[in-house]
């Protein structure tokens, strides 16, 4: 599955997104290139799209679930093999252990043989920063683990607004139905919205994911929207 969108020199490609499998979204503007989430198969998907992974200007992680970070090891290993030299910023929610642990473990087992530095940058709701040509704003969202993993367990989770010039895209990451998600996408040129559930079966579900119906309502707050992270059919 691949979606492509472009406006005013800002391009966004959903390389892949299936709930409980993997999500990876690529954003490009000129020579600037960043990746949002790195689920299983990220390396394959980048190469299939004729993107050299070693030229990525940064990686943004929305949260630490495996289908959003599971491709980090192979991605970093490929960059090492290709002898990347530039600093690699990896942005992630403050307190998110999974993505940070994957990165630090990779660096540790590589025994100092990685030719580039990784800058792990923890972000909280409201934080803003520049990354290459992009202006990035972090927005806190609610995302709880599925009940089988422990009902009530809230993950550190962020959505991102990414701007270049007058064009802004929003990516919700995995999220429940909260006001912060609507504010995240409101007024943007494109909203990339998760829609993992077909319906809610409990009030708790509303803290885990969006349904397709709710996701379309959220997406309608942007000029255009794309639904991702749909379940396997």
Number of strands: 13
Strand order of the largest sheet: 1-2-3-4-5-6-7
Q: What are the secondary-structure elements, in order, as H or E?
A: EEEEHEHHEHEEEEEHEHE
Distance between the termini: 13 Å
Mean pLDDT level: 95
Using the coordinates above, name the CATH class: Alpha Beta
Q: CATH homologous superfamily, by name?
A: Ribonuclease Z/Hydroxyacylglutathione hydrolase-like
Total helical segments: 6
Number of domains: 1
Q: What's the CATH topology name?
A: Metallo-beta-lactamase, Chain A
The description of the largest β-sheet is: 7 strands, mixed
What do these coordinates show?
The protein is an alpha/beta fold and 233 residues long. The protein is built from 6 helices and 13 strands. It has one domain: Metallo-beta-lactamase, Chain A (4-Layer Sandwich), CATH 3.60.15.10. It is 21% helix and 32% strand. The strands form 2 sheets. The protein has a 7-stranded mixed β-sheet.
């Amino acid at each position: 599955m691949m979606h492509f969108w472009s406006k005013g020199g800002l391009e966004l490609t959903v390389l892949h997104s299936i709930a409980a499998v993997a999500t990876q979204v690529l954003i490009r503007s000129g020579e600037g290139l960043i990746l949002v989430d790195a689920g299983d198969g990220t390396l394959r998907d980048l190469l299939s799209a004729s993107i050299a992974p070693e030229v990525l200007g940064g990686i943004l992680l929305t949260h630490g679930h495996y289908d959003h970070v599971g491709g980090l090891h192979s991605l970093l290993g490929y960059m090492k093999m290709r002898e990347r030299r530039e600093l690699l910023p990896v942005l992630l929610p403050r307190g998110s252990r999974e993505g940070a642990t994957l990165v630090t473990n990779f660096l540790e087992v590589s025994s100092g043989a990685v030719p580039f530095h990784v800058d792990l940058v923890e972000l909280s709701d409201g934080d803003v920063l520049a990354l290459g040509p992009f202006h990035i704003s972090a927005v806190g969202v609610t995302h709880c683990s599925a009940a089988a993993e422990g009902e009530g367990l809230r993950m550190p989770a962020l959505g991102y607004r990414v701007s270049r010039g007058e064009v802004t895209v929003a990516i919700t990451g995995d999220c429940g139905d909260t006001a912060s998600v609507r504010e995240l996408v409101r007024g943007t040129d494109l909203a990339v919205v998760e829609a993992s559930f077909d319906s809610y079966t409990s009030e708790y579900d509303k803290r885990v994911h969006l349904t397709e119906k709710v996701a379309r309502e959220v997406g309608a707050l942007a000029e255009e929207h794309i639904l991702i992270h749909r379940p396997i059919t």
